[in-house]
Amino acid sequence: MINKMRTSFLATPYAIWVMICTILPLFYILGYALTNDAGSFTLSNLTAIADPVHLKSLWLSIRVAFFTTAICLLLAYPVALILHNLKLTNKGLVVFLFILPMWMNFMLRILAWQIILSNNGILNSILSTLGLPTLHILYTETAVTLGMVYDFLPYMILPIYNALSKINDQVVEAAADLGANWWTTFTKVTLPLSKDGIISGIIMVFVPALSSFVVSNLLGGGKVLLIGNVIEQEFTLARNWNLGSGLSIILMIFVLLSMSVMNKVDDSENGGMPV
Amino acid sequence: MKNKFLSLLTIASLSVASLLGFTSCGSDADDKDTLVVLNYGKYIESDVLKRFQEETGINVKYEEYESVEDMYAKYKAGSINYDVICTSDYMIETMRLEDELIPIDYSTIPNYSNIDKDIIEASAAFDPKHQYTVPYFYGTVGILYNTNMVDEDTVSSWDCLWDPDYRNQIVMINSQRDAFMVALEKLGYDINTTDTGELKEAYDLLCKEKSLIYAYLQDETYECMISEDAAMAVCYSGEAAMGMEYNEDLAYTVPKEGGNLWIDSWFVPRTCKHYDAAMKWIDFMCQEEAATENFEYVWYATPNTKVAAHEDAETLADETVFPTKETLSRCKLYEAYDNDTLDYTTNLWKRLKAY
Q1: How far does the CA of residue A164 sit from the closest CA of chain B (Å)?
Q2: Is A263 inside a domain boundary?
């Protein structure tokens, strides 16, 4: 009993932080979302998502977030697997190298992509020196997706790597002893046991990718309007905080939906698995 | 053990990453004797700012914004009491009509006599009785182009921005009012039209252009042109002058259909708490040395008549920096939109970006 009280006492600073920086702003946003500029109750800021412009931006955001997540997963899983199988004494160092770029300001890293991908940029210089046709990538949806993949990749690698590290080597050895080849071991043992990592990786990439607006500002050249950009512009350019808040609420609902879908997948398939 | 180390690392890097994102949130206490100035980004020589504080003993909290609309949003948010603001003509008119301006006491600004009478005269468009503003810089909106990629004849008309030969080589200005101005000029309509039919036509034209352009840019335009990533760009004259400093193949023109003349001016908003210090600030900006230093930093046309004595003939003859009478005769100032027109064009702009 005393122990429990002591621990809850320690949580006070965190509780205060959550109150001021999470709960309170959420109520503010809800307040703005459910009123018009005259202050009376309305649902129009929420139903505004049905406007073709907003629907299009939301769909574009979902598409970009989906491809970002899929590419991240395809890149991250083999990396995590290789990392896990490396016979190195200091794996921490290798993982450290993956996290290292995150220590640099993310705006700077995205700006570097501008220099690489621009019409006269590094990539096109290399291509034309090799006699290959140049590419128009910067300021397109492809550039935005690429930027997000680059930015969010570590968030996919780390949870998968963590999940792989937790797998007991003896389980894999047992599979081999019973005659399973590498592929069978992978699909029947390794992959199912690392599912938790995959799911948290997907959530950690999909959610920020869905609401991001900075990457599309820098690599979209004002041509790629994600739902995050619409919300940002409602707050700044159009000075319509009510509509901006309404659309934020809709976006939050989408985030919660996608997270609950992922959790469902987790629960239903995890049934009889030893974790 | 290994896992512990890993999760520690993850937490450390995540917190560093989030700290980086939050550094700008630190709130400074509202100092009683601090003059709060709001100006466009990259629009003052930092040495002038330093000298003002040293010479007058007034502390300055200097804030910047990117576009006119950002300025208005910042001001309207109301969390900071700005003492003196510099912004563009039509927004000053909007705020004047909203009764947000306080008259300037010109008797406390001896250096006001340095300001070009013609520019003060032109300011009548947004300050009809000349009681609220002091001009800071002026310029035009036109096309900055690379002479190796486009010939002079092509850029003599706004039509070049719709030329499919230059697909992915065109940079459009990322500013609602200026983008609509370009389309309206091409259509032969008044740049200040409030006719929804004409604005809709301009919008349709801009939608057609979107598939051809490389990007909508504003502050990055001149860098993009210097590195020759694009053949032509719609931009402000000062930005063009800056680009031409670094790349000799660049040139600037205001197409024959005409364009926009803008005047950025200082004014005092209702939120002002330090009126006397604000007057001192405006006077200092009109000072010969300060105006010269600022001019040599921003490269827009200065309304300060004393600056010419410090510049060489080449600079003074530079038509990009100082538009000719002929160019000015083709350019018009923006008039403030009424609320309905503003909402209408803001909505069209959003549709264009989503198109």
Answers
A1: 11
A2: yes
